[in-house]
Amino acid sequence: MILISSPRFEEHVTPPGHPESPERAHVLDVVAADFRNGGGTVLEPSPATGEQLARVHSGAHIERIASTAGKPSMIDADTFTSPESYEIALLAAGAAVHAAEHAINTGEPAAALVRPPGHHAERDTAMGFCLFNNIAVAAAHALTLGRQRVAIVDVDVHHGNGTQAMFYDDPRVLYVSSHQFPFYPGTGAAAEAGRGDGVGFTVNIPLDAGATDADYDLVYREIAVPVLAEFAPQLTLISAGFDAHEADPLASMRMTTTGYGQILARLRRAVAGTGGFALVTEGGYDLPALRECLEVMIQVTANDTGSTAAHLVAGASPTPRGERSIRAVRSVQSAFWRGL
Questions:
Q1: Minimal CA–CA distance to 97: which of 164, 50, 32?
Q2: Is residue 339 in a domain?
Q3: CA distance 204 to 224
């Protein structure tokens, strides 16, 4: 396993008190340094190219973000840039591309530890702290490298509206998202299942506030894993957001670091041998919890295909939230996936 990251991610500066702060980049740096000190490889990213960005973003959007270079700006009430943000956003998207390329070319996993996050950014719009959609840029790049089936699994507490929209009618890209619902950004209902040729290749797993480790484990075991097995991705990308953690200030879930390790281990095991595996960071705004979750993410990805995590939530009973989510998803997706 390798990491792709850079101390330069601290140069994207948001206003004082903003949750997507440069302090998050310091956590990424500490985790990367620990990995390097333990003998791991950490590589600096190169910026994404205009061609790579244009596969998922409009030219007008790319130009709009480029126009912020050298000055601070407010894009919306949540999303800001500083003089260096355009350059740093290019590095974040480039890191995601590098992670995907490494997984494809070597068969070894990779993780891009980046900020700003990306999964809310739409084709024409920056929003939700996101400037470019890092994981979408990586997925689109993988398609140009000959991958015909790419899976994106989004474990962030917020629905990845941008990622969903970019591939909503594309059967080559499976998008699976577990998220608090109803919640920001307002998308991600179970009924949102794709359009045209892409119907069935968007799988939303909405969960009520207060969902626990056992609820998450249940929906991943009963929904995400069977769908991944049937889709048989040639590359699996994880939108690794850790804001469903019970300590996170922006959401209302009851996940723990252990629970995150469990679902990441399940995903790792579900796609073992089917293709590459890469992760790209998204949200996570409690700094100690973010560090813990990144560490367990690396441990599970680098050293495990899921077997040692099977005991993590054994004996814990799901709440009704998990069963409600499964019923809602199956009512839509059972028409498309035999395993449901």
A1: 50
A2: no
A3: 10
Residue 269, domain CATH: 3.40.800.20
Query: Active-site residue among 57, 61, 98, 120?
Result: 120
**169 is in which domain, residue-wise?**
2-333
Domain count, the chain: 1
Would you give per-residue pLDDT tens digits along the chain (340 residues)?
999 999 999 999 999 999 999 999 999 999 999 999 999 999 999 999 999 999 999 999 999 999 999 999 999 999 999 999 999 999 999 999 999 999 999 999 999 999 999 999 999 999 999 999 999 999 999 999 999 999 999 999 999 999 999 999 999 999 999 999 999 999 999 999 999 999 999 999 999 999 999 999 999 999 999 999 999 999 999 999 999 999 999 999 999 999 999 999 999 999 998 889 999 999 999 999 999 999 999 999 997 554 444 445 556 799 999 999 999 999 999 999 999 9
Q: What is the pTM of this model?
A: 0.97
The C-alpha angle 20, 39, 268, rounded to 5 degrees, equals 60
d(CA 194, CA 197): 8
Reply yes or no on whether 12 is catalytic.
no
Question: The tokens of 104 are what?
Answer: 């494809």
340 inside domain: no
- Assigned domain for 154 exists: yes
Residue 338 lies in a domain: no
